[in-house]
Fold this sequence. Notes:
Blueprint (H helix, E strand, L loop, with lengths): L3 E5 L6 H11 L5 E7 L10 H11 L1 H6 L2 E7 L21 H4 L3 H9 L1
Amino acid sequence: MKRALFIGRWQPxxxxxxxxxxxxxxxxxxxxxxxxxxxxxxxxxxSTDQVVSNLEKEYSNEVESGMVKVIxxxxxxxxxxxxxVGYEINEFVPPEVIGQISATEIRKNLKK
Length: 112
């Protein structure tokens, strides 16, 4: 089964991330959410295991049905591809209300 791949830290999962995932889920396309294994610090307040667990809980029905799979991956320097590799590269530009969501601001509020 082919899946749409999403790579990120998801620190924390917020409506902008959900909007992004829904671009494929609403087309009934299964997705693979890859969680970058980053050290816990101010910009990454959750461990990779916590992020994976939070995503699997949030999408428990979709995980159960096979529409969503969540995996940890080593942290990455870049994403690279060659020509004719058999998949698309897509950019989804969110509506302004979604684009204004700031994970940095959400993390600041988590501390309060």
